[in-house]
Specification:
single chain; 434 residues; mainly alpha
Length: 434
């Protein structure tokens, strides 16, 4: 049986401020990833009108965003494990800034695609790398909260993009350029502060091992690429992939096409569509912060079951009403109430708990890459499928959300109890100090 910590046990220690700083800077990868996807979603109708796009071109742009993030995750996570997570951590954020600048200044759809290519690749590379960086620096008793905090940043990325989209909804391309321009500024500031970030002694050791991996035949076996095909890595990698890809097909569809679907299916105006998204975002932000509070307690996984059920119910409501505006309003309420406890935050924490430490960048890069590749294919067909039948689209997503709930239950019951440091989970969420 797992050891239950005492009142003075390590699980109840307050987390030092430098670790919160590292989590915030790592969380900027999630902020920029979400901001890029949602800004394309918010601006998609504007790009369509100004660049004379059809439904297939609109789908292609969204697909390219996701494909680039997938490829970046696959390559960036591996490079970080081989040549040093700190090095990749610093430079991929700078490359993102360059891509965001190109998107912001794009005069036509070709330039827009080039900017999306650069920013997407950099965002993808930063996702597994940044999570590995904060996970390496975190002690086992605080890892859940610090990794979960990156999801708060992800929610903020959505909130800022939607807020700006709502405020600037009547300004056309000028507003679209401001929305993506703030991503470029945020990335440059993050690059500056990351370059000055001091790593912990433990993380320095991980970096040193990773940097020596390609030269030292005596380097730890966990660094070798073949190590991801061992049972210790393959089982949690497969399970977290199944959860993320099934849950993410629904979340990614509404992340990329939420505003688009409200306008084209629910007959909402651009202002109303962005306003609806904005109105429900505070619920998600507050509950994501609540998830951080319980991320190192037994409540983290207990709440998953309830949240997963509500999340499936949300998509059932949207499906039964075939995307009608009233049904979509109910959907957004239920979805924002449940998503923080049964979504990407859970995936991030489970991945860092169950995947081998030395190949976290590579293995999570694989799950991100494969999942985002599937999302890209789905994104390409989504506008056309929504035009053909919103009901078919929504019921398909509902089925996938149900599969995600079963995958999450498997991770909780089988993999999490085997994770290193599982016995250091706090027994009482009131004992969590931040």
């Amino acid at each position: 049986m797992a050891r239950t910590p005492t009142a003075s046990g390590p699980a109840e220690r307050p987390i030092p401020k430098p670790l919160w700083k590292a989590a915030a800077l790592s969380g900027m990868a999630s902020y920029l990833d979400a901001g890029l996807i949602v800004s394309i979603s918010v601006n998609l109708a504007i790009y369509r009108d100004n660049f004379d796009m059809g439904v297939w071109m609109a789908g292609a742009i969204s697909a390219i965003v996701t494909i680039c993030i997938a490829v970046g995750s696959l390559v960036g996570g591996r490079l970080a494990d081989l040549f040093g997570r700190r090095r990749v951590y610093n430079w991929d954020i700078f490359c993102f800034a360059l891509g965001a600048i190109i998107i912001t200044l794009a005069p036509d759809d070709i330039t827009l695609l080039i900017g999306v290519l650069v920013a997407g690749l950099a965002a993808g590379a930063d996702l597994p790398t940044s999570l590995a960086v904060v996970s390496d620096a975190a002690p086992a008793w605080a890892r859940g909260r610090l990794v979960a905090f990156t999801q708060v940043m992800w929610m903020l990325g959505i909130a800022v993009a939607i807020f700006l989209g709502f405020v600037l909804s009547t300004t056309g391309m000028t507003g679209a350029r401001i929305i993506t321009g703030q991503l470029a500024v945020s990335a440059l500031l993050t690059w500056h502060f990351r370059s000055r970030l001091k790593l912990s002694h433990e993380q320095d050791e991980v970096e040193e091992r990773a940097a020596q991996a390609t030269d030292d035949p005596a380097a730890p076996r966990g660094i070798a690429l073949r190590s991801i095909f061992t049972r210790a890595a393959l089982l949690p990698m497969t399970a977290t992939f199944v959860f993320y890809v099934t849950w993410g097909l629904g979340a990614n569809t509404f992340g990329q096409f939420g505003t688009y679907l409200l306008v084209t299916v629910s007959d909402a105006s651009q202002s109303l569509a962005t306003g609806i998204n904005l109105a429900f975002i505070p619920i998600g932000v507050v509950l994501t912060i609540a998830f951080v509070r319980v991320a190192d307690t037994h409540w983290r996984d207990r709440l998953f079951y309830l949240a997963a059920t509500v999340q499936v119910l949300a998509f059932v409501v949207a499906s039964l009403t075939a995307g009608a505006l009233a049904g979509m309003l109910v959907f957004f309420v239920l979805y924002q109430l449940s998503n923080p406890f049964a979504g990407e935050a859970s995936y991030k924490v489970w991945s860092q708990l169950t995947l081998p430490a030395d190949t976290r960048g590579t293995t999570q890069g694989f799950t991100y890459a494969l999942s985002r590749g599937v999302f890209a294919v789905a994104a390409f067909f989504t506008p056309a499928l929504a035009e053909y039948s919103a009901s078919v689209l929504l019921w398909s997503i509902t089925a996938l959300m149900a599969l995600a709930a079963f995958a999450g239950a498997f991770i909780i019951r089988v993999l999490v109890p085997r994770a290193p440091g599982a016995g250091q989970v706090q027994p009482d969420p009131k004992a969590v100090h931040t």
